[in-house]
Specification:
By secondary structure, this protein is an alpha/beta fold. The protein is 31% helix and 24% strand.
């Protein structure tokens, strides 16, 4: 990475791109990561998780590859915006209560054809129906496409649970009951199912510690439970109606998800960027594609340099793994009493002695898509060329969450 950052710094200096902070997207790493995801999927289509990119141009780039088909969006307003810009297959991964967006969806035939909403309880169906009640019938006899989310968190014992709190639908019987409610509503069309095994896909597992061994053991034990419950739920729903897709997985669980006969597509996105959290997996190592440059603005002590900004803490359970990773120079660490701060971030260590005011320190965010909320554009580097910039959602004037 040291050599790659040296090349990037030379290209930025040549172009006069001296504003800090700035973000650089390395297209070589991005494309290599896309190729590796496709290799791991072994022919199963990959649906791109938009929250891990939040850059429309990058979504378009990866979707030009035949192995990637469709988008897994994080909000209905985002999905409507993407369809307005040419996307034609968008599954909203989370339920929506946005009544205005539901009315907009119901009034746009192209959006009705392209967007699938996620549901996991009857109250959501009732909210959708109430929001569009005065718009019936929908244009051209269309229906709102919906998919059921199945919870596949692992609960081996009472009171013991691994995985995110997502859907209340855990059993095949519950999935079939919700499916009956959907097919009974003439304005809704059940087209798919989704199950996200976050305790496999999103939990790092390469630590050579008792914790790491426990995580690897938990994953091994939970995989048969996921596969059995997903297959049974899909079979139960398919007795009531046909399904176009069964979505599963994430970047961290591609190998196990693709092995399930019930699954038709895999969700992935973070693996395209290779953020800091993804340095700690056993089965894969994505290349770091997104680098964040900050300026040294203070030298408060001989082995301390202070950066302007840097406190981009990742969402999730607070902890050291939510801090940015210091990519360059090697030999720096965050100050224990301050960590990464909103407007200043001290870094310490022998390498700090060589830093001067105006120098650059490079970070990587712990997560893939969240940096796009802090930048209006990314600088694009391809090989030994600086290609200019590409706007993030924020740079296009959009804020969805």
């Amino acid at each position: 990475m040291t050599d790659r950052i040296a090349t990037i710094e030379r290209l930025l200096a040549r172009a006069g791109a001296d504003q800090r902070p700035l973000a650089v997207l390395d297209l070589d790493a991005f494309d290599a990561n896309a190729e590796d995801l496709a290799r791991r999927a072994q022919g199963m289509p990959i649906r791109v998780a938009s929250k891990s990119l939040r850059v429309r141009g990058l979504l378009e780039r990866v979707l030009r590859r035949p192995e990637f088909q469709g988008i897994l969006s994080y909000s209905l307003p985002e999905a409507l915006w993407l369809v307005e810009h040419g996307m034609d297959d968008v599954v909203v991964a989370y339920p929506t209560a946005e009544r205005a967006a539901l009315r907009e969806l119901a009034a746009r035939p192209a959006a009705l054809d392209a967007i699938t909403l996620m549901v996991d309880e009857v109250a959501q169906l009732e909210l959708i129906s109430a929001a569009i009640a005065d718009l019936a019938p929908l244009p051209g006899g269309s229906r709102i496409r919906v998919a059921i989310e199945l919870d596949v968190s692992y609960a081996p014992l009472p009171g013991v649970r691994f995985g995110a709190f997502r859907s209340p639908v855990r059993t095949p019987a519950q999935a079939a009951a919700l499916a009956r409610e959907i097919v009974a509503r003439p304005q809704l069309l059940l087209v798919g199912m989704m199950a996200y095994e976050g305790h496999i896909a999103g939990v790092t597992d390469n630590a050579r510690t008792p914790y790491g061994m426990a995580v690897r053991g938990m994953k091994a034990l939970s995989r048969p439970d996921i596969a059995a419950r997903r297959a049974e739920a899909v079979a139960a729903v398919r007795e009531l109606t046909d399904l176009e897709f069964i979505n599963g997985g994430g970047t961290g669980s591609i190998e196990s998800t693709r092995a399930e006969a019930a699954v038709t597509e895999i969700a992935a996105g973070s693996g395209l960027i290779g953020p800091g959290l993804f340095d700690r997996y056993v089965d894969f190592t994505p290349q770091p594609a997104l680098l964040l440059a900050l300026s040294v603005v203070r030298r408060p002590a001989p082995e301390v340099a202070t950066l302007l900004g840097g406190g981009w803490i990742a969402s999730g359970v607070p902890g050291e793994d939510r801090l940015p990773t210091i990519a360059h120079p090697v030999g720096l660490a965050f100050a224990p009493q301050e960590a990464a701060g909103e407007v200043q971030t001290p870094v310490m260590g022998p390498a700090a002695a060589d830093l001067r005011v105006g120098d650059t320190v490079w970070l990587r965010h712990a997560k893939a898509g969240e940096p796009a909320e802090h930048f209006t554009h990314y600088h694009l580097v391809d090989g030994d060329e600086l290609l200019g910039t590409i706007p993030t959602y924020r740079g296009e004037g959009e804020l969805f969450l």
